[in-house]
């Protein structure tokens, strides 16, 4: 019961699950919960030589649309700003290509449901 009441914990479990899912697909973790004035990056991963900024969305209810739509334009702009800060601070990655992915996870009850990994989520 504790897990469902604490957003913090379920958010962390969602990040664990997202991180494991991406690592199974060959991505390497650079850092997690990187914060700066303009926001927070849930996961920063490396996919080949591409730096991937991953926004993890956790939804208790099965509506997938919900998790994706929740990354609205304002949120995207905050993430892009945070990513720019990250690349300035961690200058060794600054010359690498980068992209923004979203990993949407459903409630733990249907954990058979694979994470929904949307690459290049902000293109379009």
Description:
This protein has 124 residues and is an alpha+beta fold. Helices cover 36% and strands 31% of the residues. It has 4 helices and 5 strands, in the order H-H-E-E-E-H-H-E-E. The chain has helices spanning 2-5, 7-24, 64-69, 73-89, and strands at 28-36, 39-47, 50-58, 98-105, 116-118. Strands 1-2-3-4-5 form a 5-stranded mixed sheet. The chain is globular and about 40 Å long. The N and C termini lie far apart (39 Å).
Write the layout of secondary structure elements.
Blueprint: H1 2-5, H2 7-24, E1 28-36, E2 39-47, E3 50-58, H3 64-69, H4 73-89, E4 98-105, E5 116-118
Parallel strand pairs: 3-4
Antiparallel strand pairs: 1-2, 2-3, 4-5
Arithmetic mean pLDDT: 85
Low-confidence regions: 1-5
Distance between the termini: 39 Å
Class based on secondary structure composition and strand pairing: alpha+beta
The order of strands across the largest sheet is: 1-2-3-4-5
| Helicity range | 25-40%
Radius of gyration over all CA atoms, rounded: 14 Å
Taken as a percent bin, the fraction of beta residues is 25-35%
What is the subunit arrangement here?
A: single chain
> How would you characterize the largest beta sheet?
5 strands, mixed
Order of helices and strands: HHEEEHHEE
What is the β-strand count? 5
What is the count of DSSP helices, taking H or I runs of 4+ residues? Answer: 4
- Principal-axis shape: globular
Q: How would you describe this structure in keywords?
A:
single chain; 124 residues; alpha+beta; five-stranded mixed beta sheet; 36% helix; globular; disordered N terminus
């Amino acid at each position: 019961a504790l897990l469902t009441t604490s957003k913090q914990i379920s958010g962390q479990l969602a990040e664990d699950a997202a991180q494991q899912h991406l690592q199974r697909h060959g991505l390497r973790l650079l850092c997690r919960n990187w914060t700066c004035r303009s926001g927070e990056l849930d996961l920063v991963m490396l996919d080949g030589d591409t730096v991937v900024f991953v926004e993890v969305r956790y939804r208790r209810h099965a509506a997938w649309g919900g998790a994706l739509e929740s990354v609205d334009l304002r949120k995207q702009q905050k993430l892009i700003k945070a990513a720019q800060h990250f690349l300035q601070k961690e200058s060794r990655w600054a010359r690498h290509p980068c992209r923004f992915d979203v990993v949407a996870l459903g409630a733990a009850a249907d954990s058979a449901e694979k994470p929904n990994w949307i690459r290049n989520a902000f293109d379009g």
